[in-house]
Structure formats: C-alpha cells, structure tokens
C-alpha cells in the first residue's frame, strides 16, 4: 500500500446526505460528492504541484517585467474580478441558508462545528467549487505582476496555502467547512466586485478598502477561534467531528493568516510612515 492510498483512507470521511425540500438542488448541482472527496484525498499532491508551478511562473514573470512597461489590462481585470464576484455571491447564497438554519437550532453553534449533519447537495456542490476555485484565483497574481504592482508575501502565500488547505480538508467531511465556506464566499462576494469597480476607475472611498481588510482579518480570527473551540471540546472529552490532520492544517494556516492580515492592516491604515508614503 503506497502513501497516497494511506492518506486517502485516513482523509476521505463519510458524511451522509440530508436533502430536505427546502434545499433542493438544481440539476447542475447534482454530483458524486463522495467520489470527488476520494479523488481529492488520493491526489492530495496536486495543490503542492500547482503551488510550485505558480511560484516559479509569477516570480519569473516579475523578473521578465522588470525593465518593461506595465500592461494596463483594465477591461480584462474588471471582467475577471466581476466573474469571481458573481461566483462568490452565488456560492454564498446557496450555502448560507443551511448554515443559518443549523445555527438557529438547539445547540446550533456547537452542532455547526462538531456534528456531521445537514449536508445537502447544494452545499456539497458549492463546497467542491470552493476548493476548485482556489486554482482559478491564482490568476489574481498574474494581473499584479503584468501591471507591475507590488507582489507582497501575503498575496502569493495566501493563494498557495488557501488552495492547499481547501484541497486537503474537504475530503475530511468536517462541518467546520460550512463556516469556512460561508465566510470566504461572503468576503469575496464583496471584495471582488470592489476590485472590479476600482479597475474601471469608479471612485470608492478609501475607508471601504479598510472595511474589506477588516472583514478578511475577522474571517481569520473566527476560523482560529473555531479551531480552538474544537480542541477544547475534544480535550475535555466531548465529541467533535474534527480530524487530527485538519486541526493542525487549519490552526497553522489560519494562524499565519491572522498574523499577516493584522500586520497588513496595521501597516496600511494605522502606521503613520506607511500612510504618508
């Protein structure tokens, strides 16, 4: 038995479907989610390969562009951000109702994190697209490099690790992913339309960009808090549908996000020297 098969058996966890009439899927949302989870678990190396290629490409391209004029790409950038914005809004609208419903139930907060219940086909479909979309979002960096804008650590590190994290933890079938999906779709549903409008030179007050950064930082803080809550429940002998590998991945990656976004926010909006520059 090779290491990939061992990883698959450990990571692909069953979560039975519940498809009430209120969460009836559209025809295109009907997928073989267990098969997709097994595929992702078996091919867990894919996002690592993609990250390696991504880093080589963007930094090679950045070097290539060093002594060349930047491209404008405003129309293409507006379309790119607009499409990702619409996609994020649709994803949020399709998974938020189930998320809200379980929160409103008895013990909803705990159940939303620790109980494998409430999985329906729309939630499964948009969870899968959530993971696959992280590959598409790597294209954000190409616009930054081709337009010769600053490519900061937070930008490329976040893209790489978000793709890896989504691809690795989705097969675990954890209820926590509903939180991560709702928050990410929600923030991106605001962020990408904002970028689209900015690329079209639509005036938007600077304070709005601070609101988006605040939402991003809040997303990271909440994710870290949920991970700590899971550890507390497990540590006190309670039951929580979390896998050891996921606890480590989420804790390390979202912990690093929390630090990087806090640092970015401080330097962008509160550091007097940076604001002056």
Automatic annotation (TrEMBL):
It is an enzyme of class 2 (transferase). It is a multi-pass membrane protein. The chain crosses the membrane at residues 46-64, 76-97, 125-146, 153-170, 176-196, 208-234, 246-266. Pfam families: ELO. It catalyses: a very-long-chain acyl-CoA + malonyl-CoA + H(+) = a very-long-chain 3-oxoacyl-CoA + CO2 + CoA. It is found in: Membrane. InterPro entries: ELO_fam (IPR002076). Keywords: Fatty acid biosynthesis, Fatty acid metabolism, Lipid biosynthesis, Lipid metabolism, Membrane, Transferase, Transmembrane, Transmembrane helix. Its EC number is 2.3.1.199. Belongs to the ELO family. This is Elongation of very long chain fatty acids protein. It comes from Orchesella dallaii. The lineage of its organism: Eukaryota, Metazoa, Ecdysozoa, Arthropoda, Hexapoda.
């Amino acid at each position: 038995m090779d290491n990939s098969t061992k990883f698959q058996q450990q990571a692909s966890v069953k979560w039975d479907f519940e498809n009430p009439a209120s969460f009836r899927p559209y025809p295109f949302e009907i997928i073989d989610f267990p098969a997709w989870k097994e595929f992702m678990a078996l091919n867990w190396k894919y996002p690592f390969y993609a990250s390696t290629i991504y880093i080589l490409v963007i930094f090679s391209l950045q070097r290539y562009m060093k002594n060349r004029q930047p491209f404008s790409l405003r129309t293409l950038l507006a379309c790119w951000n607009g499409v990702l914005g619409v996609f994020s809004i649709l994803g949020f609208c399709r998974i938020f109702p189930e998320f809200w419903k379980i929160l409103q139930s008895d013990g909803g907060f705990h159940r939303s994190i620790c109980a494998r219940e409430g999985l329906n086909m729309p939630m499964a479909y948009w969870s899968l697209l959530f993971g696959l979309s992280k590959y598409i979002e790597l294209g954000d960096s190409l616009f930054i490099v081709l337009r010769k804008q600053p490519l900061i650590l937070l930008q490329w590190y976040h893209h790489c690790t978000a793709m890896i994290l989504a691809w690795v933890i989705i097969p675990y079938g954890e209820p926590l992913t509903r939180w991560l999906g709702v928050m990410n779709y929600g923030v991106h549903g605001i962020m990408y339309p904002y970028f689209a409008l900015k690329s079209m030179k639509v005036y938007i007050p600077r304070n709005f960009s601070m609101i988006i950064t605040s939402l991003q930082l809040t997303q990271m803080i909440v994710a870290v808090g949920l991970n700590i809550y899971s550890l507390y429940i497990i540590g006190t002998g309670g039951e929580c549908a979390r896998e050891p590998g996921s606890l480590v991945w989420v804790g390390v990656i979202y912990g690093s996000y929390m630090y990087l976004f806090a640092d970015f926010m401080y330097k962008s909006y509160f550091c007097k020297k940076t604001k002056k520059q």
